[in-house]
């Protein structure tokens, strides 16, 4: 799905919320929330705009002042250069703890992932209120049987978010089991409406859906929707450029956000949707894709850059390639997610692909 201007997206979301024919209130609300989350995820500072603003507001006036006050020429030039560098750093998102921008170069280095500030807890948001959850055990949202069903609203949504370095298992109101990987979220109602079970997600999420032929389970995201009755599958849209749905068991339909069918998956297949909405179906090793649920990193014939991005996301570290020639080298690598990052890097170095080290909040590849 191609991105338009922010104004266009706002207009499109409002139209979706108020004017989508054939959608019930839950669907309109969920589509609106998905659009809002997508804008927050994809919003980026434009370095060209930042530089032009700085040039107009700072450099041009500074040149005029230096012309009038030549005696301060060296001092002002030094100050101007320092501020210009700061603006460029901010525009590129390079200050530690402030950005999740990926995939850009700085002075010959390739920034594959940036360190960012991240809370150290799993959070629950409900109608503007935020609570901290204990993620050491599965968290159940199945309604208490002694509570009258009408006490749970279908229009009251909960949002569970995980920071970098933490995952959580939750049990939805219909008893479906959901595992959230690091830096992910899921939104769902207190009680599912009869005839449809709908959630919105981002990041990486593994689903084990409770069968219910009368109420299809719908997973909504900015690029695609997934419709199932009862199955196990992995959802991943960490990359802003593509979304992957890998089926472990059962059967799922891949839909466009407008509801048209794009593909149907059988076990061992994955649908990959790129930025322009094109969907391709491919055979995959679902064992490798779902080992994170069991507490392991597992990569089989995967580019080093993707391996280190996953490690960086889990340990909340930046990933910087000084040696860009090894970025796409394929590796086979496994490790426990509970072990320190230094041990994981030590194991990677035994592959003799590159010299990898931990420096501060960054994983450096020489």
Write a short abstract of this structure.
By secondary structure, the protein is an alpha+beta fold. 27% of the residues lie in helices and 32% in strands.
Can you put this structure into words, describing what you see?
- The chain is an alpha+beta fold and 366 residues long.
- Among the domains are: 121-289, Jelly Rolls (Sandwich), CATH 2.60.120; 295-365, Phage tail protein beta-alpha-beta fold, CATH 3.55.50.30.
- Helices cover 27% and strands 32% of the residues.
- It has 7 helices and 24 strands.
- The protein has helices spanning 6-19, 25-42, 47-68, 73-92, 286-290, 304-315, 341-349; strands at 104-106, 109-113, 122-126, 129-133, 139-140, 157-161, 168-171, 177-180, 185-189, 197-202, 204-208, 217-220, 225-228, 232-236, 242-249, 252-255, 261-265, 269-274, 279-283, 296-303, 318-321, 330-336, 356-359, 362-365.
- The strands form 4 sheets. Strands 4-3-6-9-10-12-13-16-17 form a 9-stranded mixed sheet, with helices on one face. Strands 5-7-8-11-14-15-18-19 form an 8-stranded mixed sheet.
- β23 and β24 form a beta hairpin.
- α1 (6-19) packs antiparallel against α2 (25-42) and α3 (47-68) packs antiparallel against α4.
- The chain starts with 5 loop residues before the first helix and ends with a strand.
